[in-house]
Amino acid sequence: MNRVVVTGLGVISPVGQTVTDYWTALIAGHSGLAPPMLGSTGKVNTKLVGQVKNFDPAAHFEPQRIGLLDRFSQFAVVAARQALVQSGISLSGGLEERTAAIIGTGSGGQTTLDDGFHRLYAEGATRAHPLSIPRAMVSAAASQVSMYCDIKGPTYAVSSACASATHAIGQAFHLVRAGIVTCALCGGTEASITFGALKGWEAMRIMAPDACRPFSRDRKGMVIAEGAAILVLETLDHARKRGAEILAEIVGFGMCADAKDLTAPDPSGMARAIIMALADASLGLDTIGYVNAHGTGTVANDEAETKALHLTFGDYARRLAVSSTKSMVGHALGAAGALELVAVVMALRDSVIPPTINFLGPDPACDLDYVPNEARHFSVDAALSNSFAFGGLNAVIAARKFLG
Amino acid sequence: MSDVAKEIMKMIAEKMNKNHGVLKMSDPLDKLGLDSLQVVELTYLIEEKFDVEVPFNANSDIEAKTVADLIQTVEQLVATRVGST
Predict the structure, then answer these.
(1) In this structure, are residues A73 and A189 in contact, taking their beta carbons and an 8 Å threshold?
(2) Would an 8 Å CB–CB cutoff place A64 in contact with chain B?
(3) 3-state SS class at A383
(4) pLDDT in tens, A32-76
(5) Fewer Cβ close by (within 10 Å): the C or N end of chain B?
(6) Measured between alpha carbons, how far is residue B11 from residues A87, B5, B26, B29, B45 in Å?
(7) For B40, which of A67, A68, A130 is closest by C-beta distance?
Protein backbone atom coordinates (compact mmCIF):
# COMPACT_ATOMS: atom_id res chain seq x y z
CA MET A 1 0.00 0.00 0.00
CA ASN A 2 1.34 3.41 -0.96
CA ARG A 3 1.30 6.45 1.25
CA VAL A 4 -0.62 9.21 -0.52
CA VAL A 5 0.41 12.85 -0.41
CA VAL A 6 -0.97 16.14 -1.69
CA THR A 7 1.46 18.12 -3.85
CA GLY A 8 -0.76 20.61 -5.65
CA LEU A 9 -3.91 22.64 -5.07
CA GLY A 10 -6.11 24.73 -7.33
CA VAL A 11 -9.13 26.84 -6.39
CA ILE A 12 -11.82 28.91 -8.07
CA SER A 13 -14.11 30.27 -5.36
CA PRO A 14 -16.30 33.20 -4.31
CA VAL A 15 -13.49 34.43 -2.03
CA GLY A 16 -10.60 34.06 -4.44
CA GLN A 17 -9.54 32.53 -7.73
CA THR A 18 -6.16 31.22 -6.57
CA VAL A 19 -5.24 29.13 -3.54
CA THR A 20 -3.36 32.07 -2.04
CA ASP A 21 -6.31 34.45 -2.37
CA TYR A 22 -8.73 31.80 -1.11
CA TRP A 23 -6.65 30.93 1.94
CA THR A 24 -5.87 34.57 2.77
CA ALA A 25 -9.60 35.36 2.69
CA LEU A 26 -10.52 32.39 4.88
CA ILE A 27 -7.92 33.27 7.49
CA ALA A 28 -9.04 36.90 7.45
CA GLY A 29 -12.68 35.82 7.89
CA HIS A 30 -13.82 37.46 4.64
CA SER A 31 -17.19 36.54 3.20
CA GLY A 32 -17.67 36.00 -0.53
CA LEU A 33 -21.45 36.06 -0.28
CA ALA A 34 -23.54 38.75 -2.01
CA PRO A 35 -26.93 39.28 -3.69
CA PRO A 36 -27.28 37.16 -6.85
CA MET A 37 -26.43 38.59 -10.27
CA LEU A 38 -28.33 36.55 -12.84
CA GLY A 39 -28.79 38.85 -15.81
CA SER A 40 -32.36 39.42 -16.94
CA THR A 41 -33.85 35.93 -16.63
CA GLY A 42 -36.41 36.56 -13.91
CA LYS A 43 -37.09 37.39 -10.32
CA VAL A 44 -35.58 35.37 -7.52
CA ASN A 45 -36.18 35.87 -3.83
CA THR A 46 -32.76 34.57 -2.81
CA LYS A 47 -30.92 37.28 -0.94
CA LEU A 48 -27.42 35.82 -0.83
CA VAL A 49 -25.29 33.54 -2.98
CA GLY A 50 -21.59 32.77 -3.31
CA GLN A 51 -20.83 33.55 -6.95
CA VAL A 52 -17.40 33.52 -8.56
CA LYS A 53 -17.14 37.16 -9.58
CA ASN A 54 -15.42 38.44 -12.71
CA PHE A 55 -14.36 35.01 -13.91
CA ASP A 56 -13.22 35.65 -17.49
CA PRO A 57 -13.22 32.51 -19.66
CA ALA A 58 -11.34 34.40 -22.39
CA ALA A 59 -8.38 34.74 -20.04
CA HIS A 60 -8.10 30.94 -19.83
CA PHE A 61 -9.39 29.47 -23.11
CA GLU A 62 -8.95 30.08 -26.83
CA PRO A 63 -11.97 31.93 -28.27
CA GLN A 64 -12.99 29.04 -30.56
CA ARG A 65 -12.82 26.53 -27.66
CA ILE A 66 -14.79 28.47 -25.01
CA GLY A 67 -18.12 27.32 -26.44
CA LEU A 68 -17.20 23.68 -25.78
CA LEU A 69 -17.06 24.18 -22.02
CA ASP A 70 -19.92 24.89 -19.64
CA ARG A 71 -18.99 27.14 -16.72
CA PHE A 72 -18.57 24.12 -14.42
CA SER A 73 -15.98 22.61 -16.78
CA GLN A 74 -14.18 25.94 -17.13
CA PHE A 75 -13.82 26.17 -13.34
CA ALA A 76 -12.48 22.60 -13.16
CA VAL A 77 -9.89 23.05 -15.91
CA VAL A 78 -8.59 26.33 -14.48
CA ALA A 79 -8.32 24.83 -10.97
CA ALA A 80 -6.64 21.69 -12.37
CA ARG A 81 -4.03 23.78 -14.19
CA GLN A 82 -3.27 25.70 -10.99
CA ALA A 83 -2.85 22.44 -9.08
CA LEU A 84 -0.54 20.99 -11.72
CA VAL A 85 1.60 24.12 -11.77
CA GLN A 86 1.98 24.07 -7.99
CA SER A 87 2.83 20.37 -7.97
CA GLY A 88 5.48 20.89 -10.64
CA ILE A 89 4.58 17.49 -12.03
CA SER A 90 5.05 16.73 -15.71
CA LEU A 91 2.44 14.35 -17.10
CA SER A 92 4.60 12.73 -19.75
CA GLY A 93 6.84 9.74 -20.35
CA GLY A 94 4.05 7.30 -19.46
CA LEU A 95 3.00 9.01 -16.24
CA GLU A 96 0.01 10.45 -18.10
CA GLU A 97 -1.32 6.89 -18.45
CA ARG A 98 -0.81 6.26 -14.73
CA THR A 99 -2.67 9.43 -13.72
CA ALA A 100 -6.38 9.61 -12.94
CA ALA A 101 -8.85 12.50 -13.20
CA ILE A 102 -11.85 12.04 -10.91
CA ILE A 103 -14.07 15.08 -10.64
CA GLY A 104 -17.16 15.41 -8.49
CA THR A 105 -20.15 17.53 -9.42
CA GLY A 106 -23.71 17.68 -8.18
CA SER A 107 -25.51 18.84 -11.28
CA GLY A 108 -23.03 19.14 -14.17
CA GLY A 109 -23.68 21.76 -16.84
CA GLN A 110 -26.60 23.54 -15.23
CA THR A 111 -25.97 26.79 -17.11
CA THR A 112 -26.15 25.00 -20.46
CA LEU A 113 -29.36 23.20 -19.45
CA ASP A 114 -31.01 26.29 -18.00
CA ASP A 115 -30.18 28.49 -21.01
CA GLY A 116 -31.14 25.76 -23.47
CA PHE A 117 -34.50 25.03 -21.87
CA HIS A 118 -35.25 28.74 -21.56
CA ARG A 119 -34.69 29.17 -25.27
CA LEU A 120 -36.88 26.18 -26.11
CA TYR A 121 -39.72 26.60 -23.62
CA ALA A 122 -39.86 30.37 -23.20
CA GLU A 123 -38.42 31.85 -26.37
CA GLY A 124 -39.95 29.34 -28.76
CA ALA A 125 -36.69 28.19 -30.30
CA THR A 126 -37.18 25.24 -32.61
CA ARG A 127 -33.79 23.61 -32.09
CA ALA A 128 -31.25 23.17 -29.32
CA HIS A 129 -27.60 24.08 -29.66
CA PRO A 130 -25.64 21.04 -30.91
CA LEU A 131 -23.22 21.27 -27.99
CA SER A 132 -26.03 21.11 -25.39
CA ILE A 133 -25.41 17.47 -24.51
CA PRO A 134 -21.58 17.28 -24.51
CA ARG A 135 -21.39 20.56 -22.59
CA ALA A 136 -23.98 19.63 -19.97
CA MET A 137 -23.12 15.99 -19.30
CA VAL A 138 -22.10 15.40 -15.69
CA SER A 139 -18.77 13.93 -16.82
CA ALA A 140 -17.90 16.88 -19.09
CA ALA A 141 -15.60 18.49 -16.52
CA ALA A 142 -13.67 15.24 -16.00
CA SER A 143 -13.25 14.88 -19.76
CA GLN A 144 -12.15 18.49 -20.18
CA VAL A 145 -9.60 18.14 -17.37
CA SER A 146 -8.23 15.01 -19.04
CA MET A 147 -7.98 16.76 -22.40
CA TYR A 148 -6.46 20.01 -21.15
CA CYS A 149 -4.00 18.27 -18.80
CA ASP A 150 -3.31 15.27 -21.09
CA ILE A 151 -4.40 12.74 -18.47
CA LYS A 152 -4.90 9.28 -19.98
CA GLY A 153 -5.61 7.12 -16.93
CA PRO A 154 -8.95 6.41 -15.20
CA THR A 155 -11.20 9.42 -15.78
CA TYR A 156 -14.79 9.83 -14.68
CA ALA A 157 -17.23 11.94 -12.71
CA VAL A 158 -18.61 11.19 -9.29
CA SER A 159 -22.02 12.52 -8.37
CA SER A 160 -23.38 12.31 -4.84
CA ALA A 161 -24.91 15.75 -4.36
CA CYS A 162 -23.03 17.71 -1.69
CA ALA A 163 -20.60 14.85 -1.04
CA SER A 164 -19.52 14.56 -4.71
CA ALA A 165 -16.07 16.09 -4.32
CA THR A 166 -15.26 14.14 -1.17
CA HIS A 167 -16.30 10.88 -2.80
CA ALA A 168 -14.18 11.78 -5.84
CA ILE A 169 -11.13 12.52 -3.70
CA GLY A 170 -11.72 9.36 -1.68
CA GLN A 171 -11.79 7.24 -4.82
CA ALA A 172 -8.64 8.90 -6.14
CA PHE A 173 -6.99 8.24 -2.77
CA HIS A 174 -7.95 4.56 -3.05
CA LEU A 175 -6.53 4.29 -6.59
CA VAL A 176 -3.21 5.89 -5.63
CA ARG A 177 -2.91 3.99 -2.37
CA ALA A 178 -3.57 0.67 -4.13
CA GLY A 179 -1.01 1.45 -6.82
CA ILE A 180 -3.56 1.39 -9.65
CA VAL A 181 -2.34 4.86 -10.57
CA THR A 182 0.70 6.89 -9.47
CA CYS A 183 -0.97 10.26 -9.52
CA ALA A 184 -4.50 11.66 -9.53
CA LEU A 185 -6.15 15.00 -10.12
CA CYS A 186 -9.30 14.98 -8.06
CA GLY A 187 -11.82 17.32 -6.51
CA GLY A 188 -15.09 18.89 -7.45
CA THR A 189 -16.72 21.61 -9.48
CA GLU A 190 -20.13 23.27 -9.48
CA ALA A 191 -21.67 26.19 -11.33
CA SER A 192 -25.38 25.90 -10.76
CA ILE A 193 -26.41 29.39 -9.71
CA THR A 194 -28.98 29.69 -12.46
CA PHE A 195 -32.52 31.02 -12.37
CA GLY A 196 -34.06 27.55 -12.57
CA ALA A 197 -31.82 25.97 -9.95
CA LEU A 198 -32.21 28.89 -7.52
CA LYS A 199 -36.00 28.64 -7.76
CA GLY A 200 -35.64 24.97 -6.85
CA TRP A 201 -33.53 25.83 -3.81
CA GLU A 202 -35.93 28.58 -2.78
CA ALA A 203 -38.78 26.10 -2.84
CA MET A 204 -37.02 24.03 -0.18
CA ARG A 205 -37.13 27.04 2.17
CA ILE A 206 -33.72 26.48 3.68
CA MET A 207 -31.89 29.48 2.26
CA ALA A 208 -30.45 32.04 4.68
CA PRO A 209 -31.86 35.55 4.17
CA ASP A 210 -29.13 37.39 6.07
CA ALA A 211 -25.86 35.53 6.43
CA CYS A 212 -24.48 32.02 6.64
CA ARG A 213 -23.82 31.41 10.35
CA PRO A 214 -23.21 27.69 10.88
CA PHE A 215 -23.62 26.30 14.41
CA SER A 216 -24.61 29.76 15.69
CA ARG A 217 -27.79 30.67 17.48
CA ASP A 218 -30.29 32.35 15.16
CA ARG A 219 -28.86 30.63 12.12
CA LYS A 220 -31.37 30.73 9.29
CA GLY A 221 -30.06 28.35 6.66
CA MET A 222 -27.56 27.79 3.93
CA VAL A 223 -26.22 29.91 1.08
CA ILE A 224 -25.70 28.37 -2.37
CA ALA A 225 -22.28 28.91 -3.92
CA GLU A 226 -20.22 27.86 -6.92
CA GLY A 227 -16.60 27.12 -7.63
CA ALA A 228 -14.08 24.33 -8.00
CA ALA A 229 -11.10 22.88 -6.22
CA ILE A 230 -8.67 20.29 -7.54
CA LEU A 231 -5.92 18.49 -5.64
CA VAL A 232 -2.93 16.61 -7.02
CA LEU A 233 -2.46 13.35 -5.13
CA GLU A 234 0.50 11.08 -5.72
CA THR A 235 2.38 8.30 -4.03
CA LEU A 236 4.87 9.44 -1.43
CA ASP A 237 7.61 7.57 -3.30
CA HIS A 238 6.89 9.41 -6.52
CA ALA A 239 6.72 12.79 -4.80
CA ARG A 240 10.03 12.14 -3.02
CA LYS A 241 11.78 10.95 -6.15
CA ARG A 242 11.01 14.15 -7.96
CA GLY A 243 11.71 16.33 -4.93
CA ALA A 244 8.19 17.75 -4.74
CA GLU A 245 6.98 19.94 -1.90
CA ILE A 246 4.56 17.81 0.12
CA LEU A 247 1.64 19.85 1.47
CA ALA A 248 -0.07 17.14 3.55
CA GLU A 249 -0.78 13.44 3.61
CA ILE A 250 -4.19 11.84 2.97
CA VAL A 251 -4.51 8.98 5.42
CA GLY A 252 -8.10 7.78 5.53
CA PHE A 253 -11.47 7.78 3.83
CA GLY A 254 -14.86 6.72 5.15
CA MET A 255 -18.15 6.55 3.29
CA CYS A 256 -21.60 5.18 3.96
CA ALA A 257 -25.31 5.83 3.49
CA ASP A 258 -28.08 6.53 6.01
CA ALA A 259 -30.75 4.59 4.08
CA LYS A 260 -33.31 6.79 5.79
CA ASP A 261 -34.41 10.11 4.40
CA LEU A 262 -34.02 12.14 1.22
CA THR A 263 -33.12 15.36 3.02
CA ALA A 264 -32.99 14.94 6.80
CA PRO A 265 -29.50 14.25 8.15
CA ASP A 266 -28.84 11.26 10.40
CA PRO A 267 -26.20 11.63 13.14
CA SER A 268 -25.56 7.90 13.31
CA GLY A 269 -24.75 7.70 9.59
CA MET A 270 -22.48 10.74 9.85
CA ALA A 271 -20.71 9.18 12.84
CA ARG A 272 -20.21 5.88 11.02
CA ALA A 273 -18.47 7.65 8.13
CA ILE A 274 -16.20 9.55 10.54
CA ILE A 275 -15.31 6.36 12.42
CA MET A 276 -14.59 4.57 9.14
CA ALA A 277 -12.21 7.36 8.08
CA LEU A 278 -10.41 7.26 11.42
CA ALA A 279 -10.12 3.46 11.32
CA ASP A 280 -8.93 3.54 7.71
CA ALA A 281 -6.25 6.03 8.76
CA SER A 282 -5.36 4.09 11.93
CA LEU A 283 -5.71 7.38 13.77
CA GLY A 284 -6.72 7.53 17.43
CA LEU A 285 -9.52 9.94 18.33
CA ASP A 286 -7.15 12.23 20.22
CA THR A 287 -4.86 12.73 17.21
CA ILE A 288 -7.54 14.82 15.50
CA GLY A 289 -7.18 18.51 16.23
CA TYR A 290 -9.43 20.06 13.61
CA VAL A 291 -12.66 19.16 11.86
CA ASN A 292 -13.71 21.14 8.81
CA ALA A 293 -17.42 20.53 9.27
CA HIS A 294 -20.04 20.05 6.62
CA GLY A 295 -21.66 22.91 8.59
CA THR A 296 -24.21 24.18 6.11
CA GLY A 297 -25.91 26.61 8.46
CA THR A 298 -29.27 24.85 8.44
CA VAL A 299 -30.83 24.13 11.81
CA ALA A 300 -31.00 20.40 11.03
CA ASN A 301 -27.50 19.79 9.65
CA ASP A 302 -25.56 21.62 12.31
CA GLU A 303 -27.41 19.98 15.16
CA ALA A 304 -27.06 16.50 13.60
CA GLU A 305 -23.37 17.01 12.83
CA THR A 306 -22.72 18.15 16.40
CA LYS A 307 -24.44 14.99 17.64
CA ALA A 308 -22.34 12.89 15.26
CA LEU A 309 -19.12 14.42 16.64
CA HIS A 310 -20.31 13.69 20.19
CA LEU A 311 -21.17 10.11 19.20
CA THR A 312 -17.75 9.62 17.63
CA PHE A 313 -15.42 11.46 19.97
CA GLY A 314 -17.20 11.26 23.32
CA ASP A 315 -15.70 13.65 25.87
CA TYR A 316 -12.85 14.49 23.51
CA ALA A 317 -15.35 16.21 21.16
CA ARG A 318 -15.18 19.36 23.30
CA ARG A 319 -11.46 19.64 22.67
CA LEU A 320 -11.82 19.61 18.88
CA ALA A 321 -11.61 22.79 16.86
CA VAL A 322 -14.62 22.55 14.52
CA SER A 323 -15.22 25.20 11.88
CA SER A 324 -17.37 25.71 8.83
CA THR A 325 -15.70 27.59 6.00
CA LYS A 326 -19.14 27.62 4.34
CA SER A 327 -19.76 30.66 6.54
CA MET A 328 -17.47 32.52 4.12
CA VAL A 329 -17.63 30.54 0.86
CA GLY A 330 -21.24 29.39 0.98
CA HIS A 331 -22.20 25.85 -0.01
CA ALA A 332 -20.60 25.01 -3.34
CA LEU A 333 -22.49 21.69 -3.42
CA GLY A 334 -20.52 19.20 -5.54
CA ALA A 335 -17.35 21.29 -5.17
CA ALA A 336 -17.71 21.91 -1.44
CA GLY A 337 -15.75 18.90 -0.17
CA ALA A 338 -12.73 19.77 -2.32
CA LEU A 339 -12.75 23.46 -1.39
CA GLU A 340 -12.91 22.38 2.25
CA LEU A 341 -10.14 19.78 1.96
CA VAL A 342 -7.93 22.53 0.50
CA ALA A 343 -8.66 24.52 3.68
CA VAL A 344 -7.73 21.46 5.76
CA VAL A 345 -4.46 20.96 3.87
CA MET A 346 -3.56 24.62 4.35
CA ALA A 347 -4.55 24.50 8.04
CA LEU A 348 -2.26 21.51 8.59
CA ARG A 349 0.58 23.14 6.68
CA ASP A 350 0.34 26.65 8.11
CA SER A 351 -0.93 25.77 11.60
CA VAL A 352 -3.88 28.15 11.33
CA ILE A 353 -7.52 27.14 11.76
CA PRO A 354 -9.98 29.13 9.64
CA PRO A 355 -12.95 30.50 11.59
CA THR A 356 -16.72 30.09 11.46
CA ILE A 357 -17.76 33.68 10.80
CA ASN A 358 -21.09 35.38 11.53
CA PHE A 359 -21.18 33.46 14.80
CA LEU A 360 -23.55 35.25 17.20
CA GLY A 361 -23.30 32.92 20.18
CA PRO A 362 -23.94 29.35 21.21
CA ASP A 363 -27.02 27.35 20.36
CA PRO A 364 -27.87 24.82 23.09
CA ALA A 365 -27.94 22.07 20.43
CA CYS A 366 -24.49 23.03 19.14
CA ASP A 367 -22.11 22.96 22.07
CA LEU A 368 -18.64 22.46 20.57
CA ASP A 369 -15.75 24.84 19.85
CA TYR A 370 -16.61 26.26 16.42
CA VAL A 371 -13.63 28.67 16.20
CA PRO A 372 -16.04 31.62 16.22
CA ASN A 373 -15.30 34.63 14.04
CA GLU A 374 -11.51 34.67 14.20
CA ALA A 375 -8.85 32.33 12.85
CA ARG A 376 -6.76 30.57 15.44
CA HIS A 377 -3.03 29.97 15.28
CA PHE A 378 -2.79 26.42 16.44
CA SER A 379 -0.80 23.44 15.19
CA VAL A 380 -2.75 20.24 14.57
CA ASP A 381 -1.35 16.87 13.60
CA ALA A 382 -4.43 15.50 11.87
CA ALA A 383 -7.79 16.77 10.66
CA LEU A 384 -11.06 15.67 9.08
CA SER A 385 -13.10 17.06 6.21
CA ASN A 386 -16.79 16.12 6.48
CA SER A 387 -19.34 15.99 3.66
CA PHE A 388 -22.90 14.86 4.28
CA ALA A 389 -25.18 14.97 1.26
CA PHE A 390 -28.90 15.02 0.60
CA GLY A 391 -30.11 11.47 0.28
CA GLY A 392 -28.03 10.39 3.28
CA LEU A 393 -24.68 10.03 1.49
CA ASN A 394 -21.79 10.51 3.89
CA ALA A 395 -18.10 10.91 3.04
CA VAL A 396 -15.19 11.88 5.31
CA ILE A 397 -11.49 12.33 4.55
CA ALA A 398 -8.74 12.19 7.17
CA ALA A 399 -5.55 14.15 6.46
CA ARG A 400 -2.33 14.50 8.41
CA LYS A 401 0.46 17.03 8.60
CA PHE A 402 3.37 15.60 6.62
CA LEU A 403 6.24 14.94 8.95
CA GLY A 404 8.34 12.69 6.73
CA MET B 1 -22.83 36.40 -54.90
CA SER B 2 -26.18 36.16 -53.10
CA ASP B 3 -26.66 37.28 -49.50
CA VAL B 4 -27.06 33.63 -48.47
CA ALA B 5 -23.76 32.77 -50.11
CA LYS B 6 -21.96 35.71 -48.50
CA GLU B 7 -23.30 34.82 -45.09
CA ILE B 8 -22.41 31.12 -45.36
CA MET B 9 -18.91 31.92 -46.64
CA LYS B 10 -18.45 34.15 -43.61
CA MET B 11 -19.68 31.46 -41.20
CA ILE B 12 -17.38 28.83 -42.67
CA ALA B 13 -14.40 31.19 -42.69
CA GLU B 14 -14.85 31.81 -38.98
CA LYS B 15 -14.84 28.10 -38.19
CA MET B 16 -12.29 26.68 -40.62
CA ASN B 17 -8.62 26.05 -40.03
CA LYS B 18 -6.80 29.37 -40.09
CA ASN B 19 -4.04 27.90 -42.24
CA HIS B 20 -6.45 27.11 -45.03
CA GLY B 21 -6.05 30.38 -46.88
CA VAL B 22 -8.87 32.21 -48.64
CA LEU B 23 -12.12 30.24 -48.85
CA LYS B 24 -13.30 29.47 -52.38
CA MET B 25 -16.68 28.26 -53.64
CA SER B 26 -15.00 25.20 -55.14
CA ASP B 27 -13.35 24.12 -51.85
CA PRO B 28 -14.44 20.64 -50.73
CA LEU B 29 -16.12 20.87 -47.31
CA ASP B 30 -14.06 18.02 -45.90
CA LYS B 31 -10.78 19.81 -46.63
CA LEU B 32 -11.40 22.85 -44.46
CA GLY B 33 -10.08 21.43 -41.20
CA LEU B 34 -13.53 21.32 -39.59
CA ASP B 35 -14.02 18.51 -37.07
CA SER B 36 -17.34 16.69 -36.96
CA LEU B 37 -18.64 18.78 -34.07
CA GLN B 38 -17.81 21.98 -35.94
CA VAL B 39 -19.71 20.73 -38.99
CA VAL B 40 -22.73 20.04 -36.79
CA GLU B 41 -22.41 23.45 -35.17
CA LEU B 42 -22.12 25.12 -38.55
CA THR B 43 -25.31 23.38 -39.64
CA TYR B 44 -27.05 24.66 -36.51
CA LEU B 45 -25.87 28.22 -37.15
CA ILE B 46 -27.11 28.06 -40.74
CA GLU B 47 -30.48 26.74 -39.59
CA GLU B 48 -30.82 29.48 -36.98
CA LYS B 49 -29.73 32.20 -39.38
CA PHE B 50 -32.00 31.27 -42.29
CA ASP B 51 -34.85 29.58 -40.40
CA VAL B 52 -34.55 26.37 -42.39
CA GLU B 53 -34.09 22.69 -41.62
CA VAL B 54 -30.99 21.31 -43.30
CA PRO B 55 -31.51 17.59 -43.91
CA PHE B 56 -28.17 16.36 -42.61
CA ASN B 57 -27.25 13.44 -40.42
CA ALA B 58 -23.67 13.35 -39.20
CA ASN B 59 -23.67 9.56 -39.60
CA SER B 60 -24.16 9.73 -43.34
CA ASP B 61 -22.08 11.42 -45.99
CA ILE B 62 -22.63 15.08 -46.41
CA GLU B 63 -24.49 15.43 -49.68
CA ALA B 64 -23.05 18.83 -50.31
CA LYS B 65 -19.49 18.13 -51.39
CA THR B 66 -18.23 21.67 -51.83
CA VAL B 67 -18.93 25.09 -50.40
CA ALA B 68 -20.94 25.86 -53.55
CA ASP B 69 -23.06 22.72 -53.07
CA LEU B 70 -23.86 23.70 -49.48
CA ILE B 71 -24.80 27.21 -50.50
CA GLN B 72 -27.03 25.89 -53.26
CA THR B 73 -28.79 23.54 -50.84
CA VAL B 74 -29.46 26.35 -48.38
CA GLU B 75 -30.57 28.72 -51.13
CA GLN B 76 -33.11 26.14 -52.29
CA LEU B 77 -34.35 25.67 -48.72
CA VAL B 78 -34.69 29.42 -48.26
CA ALA B 79 -36.58 29.73 -51.56
CA THR B 80 -39.00 26.96 -50.54
CA ARG B 81 -39.54 28.59 -47.19
CA VAL B 82 -40.31 32.00 -48.70
CA GLY B 83 -42.62 30.44 -51.27
CA SER B 84 -44.61 28.63 -48.64
CA THR B 85 -45.35 31.64 -46.50
Answers:
(1) yes
(2) yes
(3) strand
(4) 999 999 876 678 999 999 999 999 999 999 988 899 999 999 999
(5) C
(6) 42, 10, 16, 13, 8
(7) A130
